[in-house]
Design brief:
Blueprint: E1 9-21, E2 26-35, H1 44-54, E3 58-61, H2 84-96, H3 98-104, E4 117-125, H4 132-135, E5 140-147, H5 148-156, H6 168-187, E6 192-195, H7 200-223
Parallel strand pairs: 2-4, 3-4, 5-6
Antiparallel strand pairs: 1-2, 1-5
InterPro entries: P-loop_NTPase
Protein name: Nicotinamide riboside kinase 1
């Protein structure tokens, strides 16, 4: 997979993978799936749900309630809209004790053992690549992208309430995407860009295979 910095491409979603030892008791990593809601809804939930179903002891944290601006529009394009403090509290709660995090949510049996377990957290959101405290956790980063013309066509086929004003995509959506992407690339250059025009099954399989290999590597390291 090649790294790319082309500004003629728009992102659907990104996926960032973190692999670390949480403590002597827990082995964990975080998968962060990011996307730009203003550009397109390009498969973030499909990817996160696919990984969640395939990976044992995984859980999902999604973005929190998005507030409205003074005109009644949802603020998807600023970090303030993400309620990042609340998201970070959830992530830190999981990192402190992922077994208990799952148990409290009824995702594992109350009497199950936490010994030698591997835990995976999937974080869904938008602009989370741009939030430095989260970004500092990430070791592997994937970013799914599609061309500008495909993004624009997909958005034009969707129905919004209220509808987009004239020239909204070119005058606001796309410039905000470029601004946010430029900021993201200033924060980190270690991003693997995935071709969003490839069949979805192919992309899902490729990402899962990377994660599966990392799980095997980390489990082998912990056992040695």
């Amino acid at each position: 997979m090649q790294h790319s910095k082309s500004c003629s491409i728009c992102y659907e979603s990104g996926l960032q993978l973190v692999v670390r030892l949480c403590s002597k008791k827990f082995l964990y990593f975080i998968i962060s799936i990011c996307f730009n809601r203003r550009v397109t809804n390009g498969g973030k939930s499909t990817l996160s749900q696919f990984l969640h179903q395939k990976i044992h002891n995984s859980s999902i944290i999604d973005d929190f309630v998005v507030p409205l601006d003074s005109n009644g529009f949802k603020q998807y394009d600023t970090l303030d809209a993400l309620h990042m403090e609340e998201m970070m509290k959830e992530v830190y709660s999981w990192r402190k004790d992922p077994h208990e995090f799952l148990r409290r949510r009824g995702l594992i049996a109350k009497d199950s053992s936490a010994d030698d377990e591997l835990y995976i957290l999937i974080v869904e959101g938008f602009l989370i690549f741009n939030h430095r405290p989260l970004n500092e956790m990430f070791d592997m980063r994937y970013f799914l992208e599609i061309p500008y013309d495909v993004c624009k066509k997909r958005r034009s086929m969707r129905v919004y309430a209220p509808p987009d004003p004239p020239n909204y995509f070119d005058g606001y959506v796309w410039p905000m995407y470029l601004q946010n992407r430029e900021e993201m690339e200033r924060i980190t250059s270690e991003i693997v860009f995935l071709d969003g025009l490839k069949p979805k099954d192919e992309v899902l399989a490729a990402v899962y295979e990377d994660i599966r290999k990392e799980i095997a590597r980390l489990q082998g390291k912990a056992a040695s």
